[in-house]
Amino acid sequence: MDVHSTTGNTPAVAMHGVTKRFLDNVANDSIDFSVGVGEICALLGENGAGKTTLMNILFGYYGADEGTIEVYGEPRTFTSPREAIAAGIGMVHQHFALVPTHTVLENVVVGTGKGLFLDRAGARSRLEALKERFRLSVPSDAPVWQLSIGEQQKVEILKALYRDSRILIMDEPTAVLSPSETPQLFRTLRTLTSGGRSVIFISHKLHEVMEIADRVVVLRNGQKVHERSTSDTTVQDLSRMMVGHEVRSNRTEPWHTGGATVCRIDGLSVEDDKELPAVDDLVLELREGEILGLAGVSGNGQTELCDALFGMRLPSAGAVRVVDRHGTVRVLEPGRPYAAVAAGMARIPEDRMHTGLMTSLTVEQNLVLESHAAPPWNRHGLLDWAGIGTHAEELIGAYNIRTQSRRERAGSLSGGNLQKVILARELSTNPRLIVASQPTRGLDVGAMESIHARLREERARGAAILLISDDLDEILQLSDRVAVMYEGRIMGEQTGGGIDREQIGLWMSGVVQ
Amino acid sequence: MRTVLVKRGPIPSWSRAVTPLGAIAVTLLLSAVPILIAGAPLFRSYGALFYGALGTRFNVLETLVKSSPLILTGLAVAFAFRAKFWNIGAEGQLLAGAIVATWIGVTFGSLPRFVMLPLVMVGGFFAGGLWAVIPAVLKTRLNVDDVVSTLLLNFVMIHIMGALLFGVLQKEGAGWPISEEIFDSAKYPFLLARSRFHLGIPLAFLLVFAVWFVNERTVFGYRSLAVGTNLHAARFAGIPTTRVIVMTAVISGGLAGLAGVGEVAAIQFHLLADISPGYGYTGIVIAMLGALHPLGVLLASLFFSVINVGAQTMSRMTGVPSYISGVIEGLSLIVMLVALLLNEYRLKVVAS
Description:
The complex is a heterodimer of chains A (513) and B (352).
Chain A: E1 13-22, E2 25-35, E3 40-44, H1 51-58, E4 66-71, E5 74-76, H2 81-86, E6 89-92, H3 104-109, H4 120-134, H5 149-162, E7 167-171, H6 182-194, E8 198-203, H7 206-212, E9 215-220, E10 223-229, H8 235-243, E11 261-271, E12 277-287, E13 290-295, H9 302-310, E14 317-323, E15 329-331, H10 337-342, E16 345-348, H11 352-356, H12 363-367, E17 378-379, E18 382-383, H13 385-398, H14 415-427, E19 433-437, H15 445-461, E20 464-468, H16 472-478, E21 481-486, E22 489-495, H17 501-508
Parallel strand pairs in A: 3-8, 3-9, 6-7, 7-8, 13-20, 13-21, 16-19, 19-20
Antiparallel strand pairs in A: 1-2, 1-4, 4-5, 9-10, 11-12, 11-14, 14-15, 17-18, 21-22
Helix pairs in contact in A: 14-15
Chain B: E1 2-7, H1 13-37, H2 42-54, H3 57-82, H4 90-107, H5 113-142, H6 146-165, H7 200-217, H8 219-229, H9 231-236, H10 241-268, H11 279-289, H12 294-318, H13 324-344, E2 345-350
Antiparallel strand pairs in B: 1-2
């Protein structure tokens, strides 16, 4: 049977009654899921709702305990991704599987060749044709590490297309993209589907789903709770189905006016890994009881700014002054993470899995990563584990961290709960200054809400908060003052009721009047 | 049909404890094959092996004597590996300890025993520790791969020892590489009559406990684990990672150095070119076999010395060559690694 000619009512993928259990946990409970030919179907749900499990079953990573899968009307069982790929299914993971030192062409063809030698010329002309046809412009001979995240994603899509994928699973594709790269991805996806390909779009961003998908399937706790054409549903509906309660989307709270200055970033310049200027003579002031939102397209120096503030990167010029717990102004010693810890700066790093936490240590061990060497935990070089345990139990309760026990490996917690572990560690010391970088990236709506609530509480307590996020909605919802970072500089700043989304958008794209 | 590995759920702690015992049983089962090939009766052979290692008071004590350098090098490697300082250099650190112990032992004859003994131990400890600092500094300052540098420094130390044994440390008038005998005040006291059961054995057991205590209870042990778990996150948390790695290296090298002290001060009383039959390398196997846990290291060391000592008796009584001990040790490592894998994954047969 020629699957490529199949049209009409046979869906590209039809999964029936798929059930998957992990020990006692039902990750997928008898789910029916299908994607039509030429359709973009969004798979929506909080973290842990079962989206990834369902797609991993489709892509052959796991076998389903029950249920059947049909691809273009033909019953299939995949025992490995290789078989799924051969059946025309491609998956673009959130974390790309590219070899950074290899070129785009090499990354695309790897693993596809037959025989001993690579037909470079043939591969190249095929790649160029795909690039042309789907308007995916990336330099074929550039090593992947030189490409932006958005371009790397294009390489992943090209990889799938090169393998004749007709069904493309996109796992949270916009999570890694900057706001300006997203429309481009959406154009690509539409080009794909207009040519008869099908896309499964995993996301928890409601607006994007409404914009790009033809149909949306909502999962919650492993069950399918909603399935609708996007034209027949609303953002409010979807968010209700997803989390089971209404999530506010517009700002209802007043803006707060900051008090005394707690931190002053003075003419800070920082270079990136390639020794190019990333932060350029940056000046910012953080004030008591105020959230300063630093908006900007990712890659405009936010990461380097944070690294410098956290002591992980040596700035090339400038200074950071901080008012510590005792009210004295100190200049942070550059390039020493401990200086930031000692000055009482609460730091929420953007990469919680590799910077903020140690996933193979226990929750309790993670909770004292920064405080273990100080009293009361350090008694003449010995750790007071009993005291630490009690302290950990308190924090697990107070921050509502969902874990089997304080001795559970942090790695087995969900993303939202990992972030709560970091918050508990950083905020339980009542810091005067909080620097939060992408605090809700990749988290589901529920976790996001609870982290936002926590930041609001800290502001009410009087903390000065620097919120760095590439999610503009998040910035606007929380911030009392918004500064926009573009190419390492502050383009402009707006306060309270004067915050104008359109103006901020212009600044983010580098437009100055 | 194909076999695939499927990740298991959380691993119960009893399973971790039972795994090494199961691995030993499987090892002995597999070792039956070469024994039978050698044409020896299986049960009599194993009987001889265990009799040789544990059958009499003297045999038990000999097995313990044999275990002490293994415990120390095993602890040295396990302690370093826990911090992901890949110390393959316990052999060189052991030799450094042996050299300095010998030098002190043959030089300061006028010192009383209660000064001399601690001096020999401390000297040997720091000799090994300092030898391990070199690769630690190269790693932290210049990003030099520690596997390579620690391994290669073993050969440097072997040649330093050779030069000394043919030079300043060589015994007057001796034509071969051997040092003078160390003074009696530098020798480990023997603690039990009619045996070689010496001070180094209770010391090694004590150090098992000490390393466990450092790992589990101290700020330093926690930091060392943190550095080994995620160097980047440890740095972020404000942990002085360079200092932790260098300190870990000192302690690791020091433990290996003490193994060298023991060989000089309790077994040979001289420095010899073949003072160590590769204890430093065996320590790596033992550390892995013991899953980097001090108690595991202790058990693995005892197992290895049972096999080693017992194989001699087995060889005499049944004619199986004593090289069987090497086969059993090698098998035990492979079985243990497989067992550790199966602890986390299970095999599943699937239709392909």
